[in-house]
Design goal:
Strand content: under 5%
Helix content: 55-70%
Radius of gyration: 22 Å
Number of strands: 0
Number of helices: 4
Oligomer: single chain
Shape: elongated
């Protein structure tokens, strides 16, 4: 199919697909990503910026747990 695109006006698309073919196939084969971890990290960074001046770490910890959807159970690995 990519070879058909190379003969059409979508030549740039064909070149891009050929260059990225292996990473695209890998993405579909191994569907795990670190998106959830990055989202939590972003929330914690935003809280850190807003939390300047918290008197102790426990206040920061409670804010992180509240923002990240804590359900009352802490799973320690």
């Amino acid at each position: 199919m990519i070879e058909q695109f190379e003969q059409s006006p979508a030549r740039a698309l064909a070149q891009t697909l050929r260059a990225w073919l292996e990473p695209i196939v890998r993405m579909w084969r191994f569907t795990k990503s670190n998106g959830i971890t990055e989202g939590f990290h972003n929330k914690m960074e935003m809280l850190s910026r807003r939390a300047y001046g918290f008197r102790n770490f426990e206040n920061y910890r409670m804010r992180v747990l509240a923002q990240c959807g804590w359900n009352g159970v802490i799973n320690r690995v």
